[in-house]
Amino acid sequence: MKGPEYRDRIVKYLEERYMPDLSKHIVSEHYVTPTYFRDTLNSHLGNAFGVEPILTQSAWFRPHNLSEDISNLYIVGAGTHPGAGLPGVMSSGKIVAEMISSYSGAK
Question: Do 30 and 3 form a contact (C-beta atoms < 8 A)?
Answer without folding.
Answer: no
